[in-house]
Amino acid sequence: MTVPLSMTVNSENSLFVVIDIQQRLMLAMPEQVGKGVLSQTGILLQAATSLTIPILVTEQYPKGLGSTVEGLEPHLSVAKKIEKTCFSCADQNEFMSSLRASHRRQIILVGMETHICVLQTALALLAQGFQVFVVEDAVCSRIQQNQTNALSRLRQAGVIVTNTESVLFEWLADAKHPEFKTLSKLII
C-alpha cells in the first residue's frame, strides 16, 4: 500500500531530476524557449542544493548530443550524472537504483524534450507509484505543439504540472524558513 502524498512538493520528500539539457539538444530548441528553460532550471538547482534535495542529471547519448550545457555546470556540484540511451530514465538501472536509494517519493522533472524523455520518464515513474511533478516553465520541445500535447497527456495521466515559483515556495513552505531570503531573491 502506498502512502498518500500531498498535492504540493515537500523538500524532505523531493528528488529533483534534470533530463537531457545538453549542448546539441539546446541548439535545436527555439532560442528564447531554451534560455527560459536554462534560467528556471538554474533557479531550481540552486534551491535544491541549498535545501539538500537530491539531484539526478541525465545525459542522453552524450557522445552524440554533447554533455550538459555549460550554463548549468556551476550548479551541479552535488548532482549525480547518469548517461543513458533509453528515452525513459526509468529504464536506466543506475537511475532507478539512485532514485530508490534516496527513499524520496516526489519526483520533480525538468528538461528536454517534453514529449519524449520527460513524458516517458514521468509516465513510467507514475506507474511505479511515485508522485511526479513536471515543471512546465523548465521543460521544452523543438515544436510547441509537441510540448502542448505532452503536457496534456501528463495531466490526464495524473502527473502534476507545476512551475518554478510554485516548486520553490512549496519547498520553502514558510517565510520563516532559514533559506527564504536567499532563495526568494532568485525569482524576485
Describe this structure in words.
The chain is α/β, with parallel strands linked by helices. The protein has one domain (14-184): Rossmann fold, CATH 3.40.50.850. The protein has helices spanning 23-28, 31-50, 62-65, 93-102, 114-127, 144-157, 164-172, 180-184, and strands at 14-19, 55-60, 80-84, 106-112, 131-140, 160-162. A six-stranded parallel beta sheet has the order 3-2-1-4-5-6. Helix 5 links the parallel strand 4 (106-112) and strand 5. The protein is globular and about 45 Å long.
Task: Give short descriptive properties of this protein.
Rossmann fold; 8 helices; 20% strand; six-stranded parallel beta sheet; 188 residues; alpha/beta
Largest beta sheet: strand ordering: 3-2-1-4-5-6
Task: Tell me the strand percentage band.
Answer: 15-25%
The fourth-level CATH homologous superfamily is Isochorismatase-like
Low-confidence segments = none
Structural class: alpha/beta
How many strands, which pairing sense, and closed or not: the largest β-sheet? 6 strands, parallel
Shape: globular
Q: Give the rounded overall mean pLDDT.
A: 95
Radius of gyration: 15 Å
CATH architecture: 3-Layer(aba) Sandwich
